[in-house]
Specification:
By secondary structure, the chain is an alpha+beta fold. Among the domains are: 20-139; 489-568, Thrombin, subunit H; 569-664, Lipocalin (Beta Barrel). It contains 17 helices and 43 strands. Strands 6-7-8-9 form a 4-stranded antiparallel beta sheet, with no helix packed on it. A 4-stranded antiparallel beta sheet has the order 13-14-15-16, with no helix packed on it. A hairpin with a 4-residue loop joins strand 38 (648-653) and strand 39. It starts with 19 loop residues before the first helix and ends with a strand.
């Protein structure tokens, strides 16, 4: 316990007052508490200030037998009050006894310290409040207020009700905890008024409680509810019902993207016409202008941009690389990252990817830190970046691989099919081939097994499955029923309703019911599954190492007398004997003699032939329309042919007119009537409709 002794060891002068008051202080100075108490009590009525001050000394000292801090408090307050009432001459006498306002205040504060420690020991709102009320002069008053506020706040937190926080704020508006209390109050009000998932409750809160800071969260949650529907109707409703929302513009943007996610000019034009109140019509008009163009990735000064079909720069050359536009967006390289741009060259999303693929059906696979994820056309993450492989959207599901396991998800990132597999293929016709426990089976879109996991290999063929069990092949229905028994060494896919099934080096043809339609036995080789498929009603078959041709009934059209054959053509079919190619008609009469080292099938009255290491093109009369001046020729488009000479490529037409000089490394079809020509110096674009160059990077 702390001592509250101010220092009454006062050596009074011999000439001091000889009254009871003075004698009381003399007794107090020598710790004669009994006499001091008696003397001060007798003078209290006449000399209130001095006697009360003296009694304070009797009661506030722990060594005193009369120690009572409540009495000490009573008399020091009495002394303080009396000082203000006495005359100046009496004050002078008291000052001689070392009693004045400063000394009285000091004594009051020392007594208050005791009461503060007592209040702190109780540590209740009531104890602190009593101290604050009764000791306004104390040095600990501000600390007591802070402690009272803190204890009161802890009680409010424990109750954690709207009324507890409201009461706290009303009582203690200056408290340090006021801000936190207000936050918790507003939070509880918010959660008491909104119903998770209920649009109307969020809207009512926003309208009725505009000053509540949780309005911002309510706006977010409300918008999420509309976004979760992921439909144009939902966004349109949100736009109409929430015109003041901070997400109003974003809702319009998403609505626009939903209505135009293929990025076609038709979609964009329809949107502009139908939604006259769209806030960014100028931006969309610019997009429409560009969408109506064919934009070609092009390079200039080692930077990439896009030109139109007139060779004019539409998107400046400022990227490290560029891919063609797909679904209204193009992938380009920027600062070592992959980013998406729109038709205007503006960034579609504020995302930087280590790598990415073009959009397919509103989704794009991207890579971050060596992990794959998927984004949608809003730029939102559809699949988090944690996968090793991600396929494309197929039958409404996406195949992924993570930690060596395959899992199917929907386009919202939710697992679409329960379970995970050791291996899996994309869904087709609502069925997928999957592997579990080392065996293959088939599941439906719900993950339910259609074909049990008991096969070593499975290949889908429409609603049938070619399966292998051990070393034998058979055919199963989509429900796992056996269509063709497991007794074959190889089975090919169905073409024109028939498949090839081989056993012991011979094969026959079977229909989809498992019935043998054309009985061989024909010779089976490694080339049979592709070469002997039916095409346009005919198939090439090998008998005793010679090829012939049969029709769908198994009737011989060409006898098995040839070393090789092209596809059957009733006018002219490519035939081979002795390593030389010629052409025969439907009567198997040789029309053009065996002389070519290679002869293609006729297409549009023309065929590519080779002789002595040179290639040319003949007509049905066996006349060279393109002379044998090239190492290789391949059909390109229409009446055009790609020619190859000394490793360089060009294009000629069927009249041997040089369209593209033979100087390029690659020639590929870009889009519509535009082709891309590449060589070491750069890439050129050529318009085959107008027979002119659009742009020549190699000439820059």
């Amino acid at each position: 316990m702390k001592y509250f002794f101010l220092g009454f060891l006062i050596v009074l002068s011999i000439n001091s007052f000889g009254g009871k008051l003075e004698k009381g202080f003399e007794a107090l100075a020598v710790f004669d508490y009994y006499n001091a108490r008696e003397l001060f009590s007798k003078t209290l009525d006449k000399q209130v200030c001095g006697a009360a001050f003296g009694l304070t000394g009797v009661y506030d000292t722990e060594k005193s037998p009369f120690f009572n801090i409540d009495s000490a408090y009573k008399y020091i307050v009495m002394a303080d009050s009396a000082w203000r009432e006495i005359e100046e001459k009496d004050k002078e006498k008291l000052r001689e006894l070392e009693i004045d306002p400063e000394i009285i205040l000091k004594k009051k504060k020392s007594i208050s310290t005791f009461f503060f420690e007592n209040a702190a020991a109780q540590n209740t709102v009531e104890s602190y409040q009593l101290f604050i009320d009764n000791h306004p002069w104390s040095d600990e008053r501000l600390e007591a207020i802070a402690l009272r506020n803190h204890v009161a706040y802890q009680e409010a937190k424990k109750a954690n009700t709207i009324s507890s926080y409201q009461s706290y704020m009303e009582r203690y508006p200056d408290a340090e905890e006021y801000t936190e209390a207000e936050f918790r109050y507003n939070e509880l009000v918010y959660h008491s008024l909104v119903i998770p998932g209920d649009i109307s409750s969020y809207r009512a809160f926003i309208v009725n409680r505009p000053d509540n800071p949780f309005v911002e969260e309510a706006e977010i949650e409300l918008y999420k509810l509309y976004k979760a529907k992921n439909s144009a109707i939902a966004y349109q409703q949100y736009i109409r019902e929430n015109p003041e929302s901070p997400y109003h513009e974003d809702a319009w943007r998403r609505f626009f993207l939903l209505k135009t996610y293929h990025g076609t000019p038709e979609e964009i034009a329809d949107f502009l016409f139908e939604y006259q109140d769209y806030p960014n019509r100028k931006e969309v008009s610019e997009l429409l202008d560009r969408a109506e163009m064919t934009l070609l990735p092009c390079r200039k000064d080692n930077k990439w941009g896009c030109i139109n079909t007139y060779g004019e720069w539409v998107i400046g050359a400022k990227y490290e690389w560029a891919l063609p536009f797909k679904e209204g967006k193009a992938l380009v390289g920027l600062l070592g990252y992959s980013v998406f741009i729109d038709y205007r060259g503006a960034l579609t999303f504020n995302h930087l990817f280590d790598d990415a693929q073009s959009f397919e059906e509103g989704l794009a696979v991207a890579e971050k830190e060596e992990a794959l994820g998927m984004i949608n056309f809003f730029g939102d993450t559809a699949l988090s970046f944690e996968y090793e492989e991600i396929g494309i959207l197929n039958n409404g599901v996406i195949l992924t691989r993570k930690d060596g396991k395959y899992i199917y998800y929907d386009d919202q990132g939710k697992q679409a099919i329960p379970g995970e597999y050791d291996n899996a293929l994309d869904f087709k016709d609502n069925k997928a081939i999957v592997k579990k426990g080392g065996k293959w089976g088939v599941v439906n879109i719900l993950g339910q097994p259609l074909i049990k996991f008991e096969y070593d290999a499975l290949v889908a063929d429409s609603n049938l499955f070619i399966a292998r069990s051990g070393l034998k092949y058979g055919i199963l229905s989509a429900l796992g029923d056996t269509i063709l028994p497991f007794e074959f060494e190889r089975i090919g896919g169905f073409h024109e309703g028939l498949c090839i099934a081989s056993s012991e080096g011979k094969f026959s043809y079977y229909n989809r019911k498992g019935e043998m339609v054309i009985k061989g036995p024909y010779d089976f080789t490694d080339a049979t599954l592709t070469k002997s498929q039916f095409n346009n009603g005919y198939a090439r078959v090998l008998t005793n190492s010679k090829y012939g041709i049969i029709d769908h009934q198994g009737k011989k059209v060409y006898p098995a007398i040839f070393d090789d054959l092209g596809e059957y053509n009733p006018n002219l079919t490519a035939v081979n004997k002795g390593g030389k190619w010629g052409y025969a008609n439907s009567d198997v009469r040789l029309i053009h003699p065996y002389k070519y080292s290679y002869a293609s099938d006729f297409q549009n009255g023309l065929a590519i032939v080779e002789l002595n290491g040179q290639a040319g093109v003949i007509n049905t009369s066996n006349e060279l329309v393109i002379p044998m001046n090239f190492d290789k020729i391949e059909p390109f488009e229409g009446s055009l042919f790609i020619t190859d000479l000394n490793g360089s490529k060009g294009i000629v037409d069927q009249s041997n007119t040089l369209i593209i000089p033979v100087i390029y490394e690659t020639i590929v079809h870009f889009d519509g009537h535009i082709i891309t020509l590449s060589k070491e110096e750069g890439a050129d674009y050529f318009d085959i409709n107008n027979m002119k160059y659009i742009y020549k990077e190699s000439a820059e």
